[in-house]
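Risk mitigation, structural track. In case the binding assays with manganese (II) ion fail to produce interpretable data, a predicted complex structure has been prepared as a fallback.
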Amino acid sequence: MLKQKIRRKESAKALDHYLESHLHPILKRIYYARAIQSPEDLGRDLEQLCPFQLLLNIDKAAARLARALKEQEAILIIGDFDADGATSTALAVSALKAMGAQKVDYLVPNRFTYGYGLTPEIVEAAAPRKPQLIITVDNGIASLAGVQRAKALGIDVLITDHHLPGSELPEAIIVNPNQPHDTFPSKAMAGVGVIFYVMLALRHELSQQDWFNLQNIPVPNMAQFLDLVALGTVADVVPLDKNNRILVHQGLGRIRKERARPGIKALLEVARRDALRLNASDLAFAVAPRLNAAGRLDDMSLGINCLLAEDPMSAYRMALELDQLNNERRDIEAEMQKKAFVIVEKLHLAAEIPAALCLYDKAWHQGVVGLVASRVKDKVNRPVIAFAKGDAGLLKASARSISGIHIRDSLERIAIRHPALLSKFGGHAMAAGLTLKESDFKEFSRIFEADIAEQLSPEHLAARIDSDGELEALHLTLELAELLREAGPWGSGFPEPQFDGVFEIVEQRIVGQNHLKLLVKLKEADRYLDAIAFNVNLNDWPNHRATMAHLVYKLDVNEYQGRKRLQLMVEELEAV
Ligand SMILES: [Mn+2]
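Fallback model:
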């Protein structure tokens, strides 16, 4: 069974001479399969970043910002309540200050009172601060009404975003690689990448105008913001294309050299991660969730203030608070997941699983439905939307899709065919948010399922496990594990290498609730290896006496009492 699900990656094209002669044979295979053919493809050096001039309107944005600085206008950043939004906000505030802006402030919509984006309500809330220029980061592309309201109040708006635009654009200067007629080569940038680029352009513009000399301020080194860019990019799970890999690699490099800002250092400390050996998955699984917890349960201002903190003590205090919120989030999520899986079990028993699932429970938490949708999607391999109760008879929901099904397009189709149904929606191919009337839940579920059913093919449903193939005994080494750690950054669109093969199970025991610790023996060699499988469905692993098993695994370096050992991190296992 498992074997049928595994697709071993193949590679057709050759590597250039340099890689051919310099690379470990396994790394060659891995890079091949990820369309890396030359050192330039790898994406490591800042010089290889796509030039900012390629972003549509970035010259207009830089000119408008330069004017704001010269006239010391009051600038207000409007962010978003997730980790991409928080890093974007922190970057905008600190970069503008570094360039000499004296009146910069930010406001982050609270998901419970204002919801997502530059809404007319958030503009009203901002008005008493008398901003002359509003900059949206990681949002705004769908904020037509909000921009109108700002204009009516005499406030200029600069939109920086990466979300997909609707059929109409707001009337403002817009920088977004995904807007019509933009020819920027990387469409995968996160919100934090976009504002970083805008700040690069602004620094260029100000240098042209001799601003830094005239003001007697040092020209800011933009590399200092790459820790934020790396964190926001990884947290938003955007594909790590070449441009994003450069940004993440460089940001990780700075954090490893302990040049991160105090807030990121503090978050790593409370998560007990070693900054010196940091990689992208630490940002994804340790730092981002703690930051996101603030936006999910409370107010993202705490996260932004932690990122903006200048002294280690206050950064640490805020990181501890975030850690506490993250623990609460975990408890809430566990409770919600239980209920979600009960619903899913019932569906399983009833008949064939529907093409798409809409799940709703009155007690569910608005800030956590996205995580639940994501877990259920992983389990059932269908697009999933999880709903929570909002204000005034509305439901707020988070959608997660499977590869090949564009969830935002699907919602757009529904919105066109049934204009009264969706009050709000937006997002990407794989994730989206939406709002609808509680009374419309049943009808929406039916329509959504029908829309997905029309697109769903057996291809989408064959949940494939990608594998980089088998590893021979001579390659199952600590050396290769260390090499692979350094060969990333791995992540969405540039997956961490995983391998598969049949091993003899020599010993096994259950640790914690449902983790399996294994000692495995290589088939044709007299060698033993440690392996661990987390969150195993023990019902699917009934054969505790299994002697042979097919494993899909990653190579992991296990540090214990100062000694490093190779360990197989088992992702899938099946007795054979
Ligand atoms: Mn984003």
